[in-house]
Design goal:
two-stranded parallel sheet, 6-stranded mixed β-sheet, single chain
């Protein structure tokens, strides 16, 4: 039997083992020896319930969705952020997309600002700011690979890299997140390519039933993309997506640097207003 045919047969037998509850029998364990270890581990983790996965984390503190304030609650808890003022450049960027104000209340409950470790979030998918070779690097990329374990790199090695602006998806392995979406941000300051990173990451919503997703600040680290413009692109692209996709329950923006926290606290009040007045009003603009 040729190798590709044999592999398909093995895949079918593995799924039967899992679906019939005999995954850990001697027969299935023998099959695992001839199957890629990352694939076996990925299938096993994808079929675990959140409760079963939590047992694996030991002392790792998992952050569930209900532990992360939606934006409308965040504003109430941090009333001082309403004193943050946008500038004229912010208004110019904001006006590139006209929001549907009738959805403001609903969408303010679907986005969050999270100041913490993205690897601890129990969501459908976390997004990795990857390099084009999909090799473990530094920053967020390195942290995700370390937390997910060696099987992540094994799967990444089968994907043939990832061009700038595109996105590829893998299992989450030892992470609370079910999937990891790897996207490659631009190194040349291309706003169009950064927009594609967010669009292509969000596009897995339907194909993989992604109902909650967490983004880092893509390209703003060693790739040098301007932090404020990057936030505008992230928020504008997300707002547009949420207006058209009711099934996405939560989009979380993970910030680490204080400058990014301040930027997102300011700009989210424009893109996801929780008041009747709109932050695009000229009266709210700094002089």
């Amino acid at each position: 039997m040729r190798a590709p045919v044999l592999r398909k047969v093995i895949d079918q037998i593995l799924l039967i083992c899992q679906n019939t509850g005999v995954y850990n029998t001697h027969f299935c364990s023998q099959i695992k020896l001839s199957e890629s270890r990352w694939k076996v581990e990925k299938l096993k983790n994808l079929n675990l319930s959140p409760e079963a996965k939590r047992i694996k984390y030991d002392n790792m503190s998992v952050v569930t969705i209900d532990m992360v304030d939606p934006w409308n609650s965040y504003v109430i808890r941090n009333s001082g952020i309403e004193n943050r003022k946008h500038n004229l450049d912010d208004v110019t960027e904001f006006k590139k997309f006209k929001i549907d104000n009738g959805l403001n209340k609903c969408l303010a409950e679907k986005v969050s600002l999270y100041k913490g470790d993205i690897t601890r979030l129990e969501v459908s998918a976390i997004v990795n700011a990857a390099n084009s070779r999909l090799k473990a690097g530094g920053g967020v990329d390195g942290a995700i690979h370390r937390a997910a374990g060696p099987h992540l790199q094994e799967e990444c090695d089968t994907l043939g890299g990832c061009p700038t602006g595109e996105a590829k998806i893998t299992g989450g392995y030892n992470l609370p997140a079910k999937y990891i979406i790897h996207t490659v941000g631009p190194q040349d300051g291309s706003a169009a390519m950064l927009k594609k990173c967010y669009e292509n990451s969000l596009a897995f919503h339907k194909s993989h039933n992604i109902t909650s997703i967490a983004f880092p600040c893509i390209s703003t680290g060693i790739y040098g993309f301007p932090n404020r413009l990057a936030a505008h692109i992230a928020l504008r692209t997300t707002r547009q997506f949420l207006e058209q996709n009711e099934g996405m329950e939560r989009v979380i923006f993970c910030t680490f640097m204080p400058v990014d926290v301040e930027i997102y606290e300011t700009l989210m009040q424009m893109y996801f207003p929780v008041h009747d007045w709109n932050y695009a009003d000229d009266a709210r603009t700094e002089k």
